[in-house]
Amino acid sequence: MIHDAHSASNRRVPVIAALDAGTYYHHRTFRTPELAPYIDRVIYLPELDDAALEGCDALIVSCRINPELLVAQRARLARFLAAGKTLVAMGETGSHRWLDGVRWTDCEVNFWWWKTPGADPGLRLAAPDHSLFRYLTLADVTWHQHGTYAPPPGAVSLVDKVGAGSVLYEDRCSTAGRLIVTSLDPMYHHGSYFMPATSRFLRGFLPWLKDSTPAA
After folding, report:
1. Predicted structure pTM score
2. In terms of CB atoms within 10 Å, which end of the chain has fewer, N or C?
3. Is 7 helix (H, G, I), strand (E, B) or coil?
4. Of residues 13, 46, 42, the one with CA closest to residue 30
5. For residue range 56-92, what is the model confidence (pLDDT) as tens digits?
6. Spans in the chain with pLDDT lower than 50
7. Alpha-carbon distance values, 82 to 46, 178, 213 (Å)
8. What is the per-residue pLDDT for 10?
9. Reduced to 3 states, what is the DSSP secondary structure of residue 140?
10. DSSP 37
């Protein structure tokens, strides 16, 4: 089940694909009118193979996909990066289990920090001059976190949690491609109709991904 919005177009625009695990929150994200134009191809996870990725410039591993299913695709995803493509590993996918060099630390999750007056979740823009932050603000990346990463040498942390590590980083060094890793899970919350920051995140992140991904 592959839907390719630009298959009939001859324009040299990047093709952005996203994995669909068949969940309600993936479906709502892919069908939100303001987001859908930035996702050119939706690939049903059980049908992910080399043919499904043919012509794709970037692949989003969508939030909260069962890590066991991704471990089975480890070699294919590594080949995608080795071919110079962009891979986005979103939150709660166990990316440290199916990507080399990803170092992860769990943390206790405070779902309701925002109900405490003056609370500070500890997130900071680590690279405020990065192009992503022409599309997003700190408020757009701020909700609870499930853990943090220790980016590999040469990678750039974009959002840090004070004293803990990165919650969003970009790695152009570990492979021939570009790897974007985050512990944030915007599709889950957007698709569940709560936590407005997650919808704002997608409204900025997806256009940035489209604009910053080179077409093959």
Report:
1. 0.92
2. N
3. coil
4. 42
5. 999 999 999 999 999 999 999 999 999 999 999 999 9
6. 1-9
7. 22, 9, 15
8. 52
9. helix
10. G
d(CA 39, CA 117): 38
The CA distance from 146 to 64, in Å, is 12
Residue 103 CB coordination number (10 Å): 12
Structure tokens that stand for 96 in this block: 């440290």
Longest C-alpha distance within the chain, in Å? 53
- Which amino acid would we find at residue 119? A
- Alpha helical stretches, state H, 11-87: 24-31, 50-53, 67-71, 74-82
Phi, psi dihedral angles at 25 (to 5 degrees):
-75, -30
One-letter identity of residue 176: A
In the block, residue with structure tokens 């790897």: 179
Alpha-carbon dihedral 176, 185, 211, 12, rounded to 10 degrees: 70
Rounded to whole angstroms, the Cα distance separating 203 from 137 reads 12
Q: 207, 40, 59: which is closest to 132 by C-alpha?
A: 207
DSSP E strand boundaries for the chain: 2-4, 16-20, 41-44, 58-61, 86-89, 104-106, 123-125, 147-149, 156-161, 165-171, 178-182
Residue 111 structure tokens: 């779902």
